[in-house]
Amino acid sequence: MKRLNTVEDFKALKEGLFRSGPQSGRVIVIPAGTCCQASGANDLIRTAKRELLNRGLVGKVALRITGCHGFCQMEPNVLIEPEGVFYPKVTMDNMVRIVEAVSQGEILEDLLYMDPRTAEPIQKAKNIPFFARQVRTILRQNEKTDPCRILSYIAEGGYTALSDMLASCKPAEVVEAIRESGLRGRGGAGFPTGRKWQMLALQPNGDGKFLVCNADEGDPGAYMDRAVLEGNPQSIIEGMLIGAFATGATDGIIYVRNEYPLAIKNLGTALRQARALGLLGERIIGTDFSFDIKIVRGAGAYVCGEETALIRSVEGRMAEPRQRPPFPIEKGIEGKPTLISNVETWANIPVILRRGAKQFRAVGTEDSTGTKIFSLVGKIRNTGLVEVPMGMTIAEIIEEIGGGPEDGVPIKAVQTGGPSGGCIPVDRFDLPVSFDGLAKAGSIMGSGGMIVMDETTCMVDVAKYFMNFMKDESCGKCFVCRKGTQRMHEILDDVSKGRASLDQLSLLEDLATVVRDTSLCGLGQLAPNTVLGTLRYFRDEYLTHIEAHKCPAHVCRELNTYRIDPNICVQLGHGCGICSRACPEKAIFGEKNHSHRIDLNLCRKCGICLDLCNFNAVIVE
Amino acid sequence: MWDMPGSLQLQCSHCGIAGEQSCLDWMWNYRTGPTRSGHMIHLKVNGLNVSVEKGTTLLEAARFLGFSIPTLCHAEGLSPYGACRICIVEITENSKSRLVTSCTYRATEGLMVRTASSRVINARKMIIELLLASCPQSRKIQDLASAFGVRQQRFRQQQEDCILCGLCVRMCKEQMMAGAIGFRGRGDRRSIGTPYDVRSEACRTCGACMYICPACQLRCTFNEPEKAVCGACANLSPPCLDKTNFEDMMCYMSPCVACEIKES
User: Fold this and answer.
1) What is the largest CA-CA distance in chain B?
2) Which of B105, B123, B190 has its CB closest to that of A514?
3) Chain A contact for B133, CB < 8 A?
């Protein structure tokens, strides 16, 4: 690639790309993010390449490998452009058929997505309810760009915002545009990004300033940032370049967790290509503006997402938070002013400059503008990444985009914000998803995890799971967070095993409040949220565990009693005996063609019989 | 650490704001070094107006006024750490109040500080209860519990000998310039020790870590001198074990395990 030496060079390159493309032929788009690869996208890519070569279609039908498109439930999927035909769950055999159909301009009706409600096939991706209700500003770019080809990003309008800004804007105007857009940090706290930029711009520029992209996404069940990092790393680089120009920052750091190897690889490629084109490094496209970015790999601790701990980790020390103030914006990495923003925030910056702040504001609510990506997981039909305008209600996201419950079991709550967030019960699903909307229900929007729970989920077990996570991930510096999470987990464990008393429940509540009040950093302050949230909305479940020694969802194994329905066992299963053979305690007695029974004195309540019985004869009470 | 001015300054030398002339509302001023110079900061501690130099922590301000705040992980001469959370105070800023550790929080203009509000006391009692549940044998923690009227602990009793306050780590690094011990692990696996649990080259067996420790009484490992972080009783020359006069010994444990054995 030839280095671009002037803004005009960039414009010429861009126009050249527009002239040569978009190709007249069809494009087979295969998403190959980590999630797609896990479900077999690599096989599809191999098959598609081979078929294109064998059939002599090179040059007629193009192939584009992109990041995840978001509909993870239906992966590996294939998208055919320009029609936008969507094939879900494609196998290698079907891939051969798809290549053939694409070359002849046909659509394979039998492979199309079936709407589970109407049982009608839907041809185009944009008509599928999962996609139809979303506003895919960021994720749309994942479909259009190849993360390993910078020209593909430029052809889609990438770096236009940067070159226009370098040609005509003053830094203060850029800060003002971001302020006007009302963009708020997507990492969870929701601090206005424009204000942060202004604060950094006002810091004295003596020894340099740092921009950091926080890509240490550690929430269980959340992977929005990974999709953006893998699918569109150039947008983050462009966002950081714009930020550096506006605030006078000199060094950029992308702090990405080591558990995202594909993201690190794609980021490295993207940085190399941007440097080769002269879009990164010294004298960017011939102007006086210089800025470079390096990747720092996180060593894998949840607390590294906390900004003061992140700074220490970047400096090569143990990741421990410290007292704020001084805020990183005054004293950050090596004591220099540091601005830390989330991946999604950076990805939104080029969009704002390209479309204008007013148009960005038009989406979303008054105090939370723009769109937000959520990772919708759990007991829901359509798992995946959804990008919705702020202000959409939880019910809309879960019912219309998510497609409602998975197996017809009613949904009872949604956990937002990961282990730091809280549970929102089903009767409050009319709440709008925005920074302030969710706070009213005692939860946070957080970085965007949304875990859906139905009646087969035990809320005590959920609280125990998240507390176990927090107990392991607390850095251990401050005593309250370290011991508090351990003790809360201890009490929750007692509750789930039916050993707790009501006094312990009130102790749990007191302890949770103290940990929230007195912990040093956000991790400790938010750690009791799940406990407090479940206690607020699902106290009756706790009381059932404690007083009746029963788990309503039959999740807490120690509280279950198993028995075998003699009628089903004999009539359907003819006393097959699979349970008695598998029982590790030899607690099930019976003969073939006769009903089996469980000796409750011997039963260890492992539940193996329940899992193995093919006739649902084992009943849990 | 600080010099009291000869006469109480009733006016901020920098901005000229004067305090009220009552015996309780008084302003004070001290100098502690080159870093703490410049603008004076006015704040209110338990209703008393004070003005302090920039960089003063809330703990220093409150203690100077005579309000006692208990601490465990704080020691003069060592950098503030904020690990034990015992020294929490309630601060009010922009009509929002929250709890912060006074040892690490620096005074800011217009801050309202309460060192013994019910929220502070309740939280402190809970922290002491947590401490008692983990390290019941520490004299210092027992004294704290008694001072705050904590008579029971409702958690499952553990017997640990370290509260990970980090005093020894900071002592070793900042005062002894050794840096022989440090933290490792996180969460419930966090602990203090030398790298790979072998005796560190940097350790001079000065015993300062044991001298400053508020909780652990069991760190003395004279039986295993290759592991010991003090080891004065066996490693010094002549070793403490050979000495006859207790005053000559280089031991900070009371009672010293080694000495007791020797005396008997």
Assistant:
1) 67
2) B123
3) yes
